[in-house]
Amino acid sequence: MILIRCPHCRELRAEDELVYGGEAGLIRPAESVDDVQWTDYLFMRANPKGMHCEQWCCSAGCGQWFEVMRDTVTHRITAVAKFQQLVAPSGEMT
Q1: Do 42 and 60 contact (CB within 8 A), yes or no?
Q2: Which of these, 22, 21, 4, lies nearest to 13 by C-alpha position?
Q3: Per-residue CA distances from 18 to 13, 22, 55, 58, 68 (Å)
Q4: According to the model, what pLDDT value does residue 89 have?
Q5: Mind giving me the DSSP string for 47-94?
Q6: Residue 43 to residues 25, 34, 39, 46: CA-CA distances in angstroms?
């Protein structure tokens, strides 16, 4: 089971008290994009083996979103931060 301490309310939560929001750092495209670009935004994800920056929501607590740097193989968490502090707008980890 994954345990994550929310950076907002500071409560330690189990994964069933959180909502997984997928890959962090994705930027919604402009309103005038074609179907291929919109489909890429909705469905195409990096899905790496190893370190990955993700979005999580403290749904059983404060309801705030935050970012988690997690190893997708071992589930080891190396960083937790308020939203938009771990991932640069380009999608690269900071």
Answers
A1: no
A2: 4
A3: 7, 12, 10, 5, 12
A4: 46
A5: --SSEEEEEEE-TTTT--EEEEEEETTT--EEEEEETTSSB-TTS-B-
A6: 14, 14, 6, 10
**What digits encode the pLDDT tens for the residues 14-72?**
999 999 999 998 888 988 899 999 999 999 998 899 999 999 999 999 999 999 999 99
Residue 94 pLDDT: 47
| Domains detected in the chain | 3-82 (3.30.2270.10)
Amino acid (one-letter) located at 62: C
pTM of this prediction? 0.81
Q: CA-CA distance, 72 to 28, in Å (whole number)?
A: 24
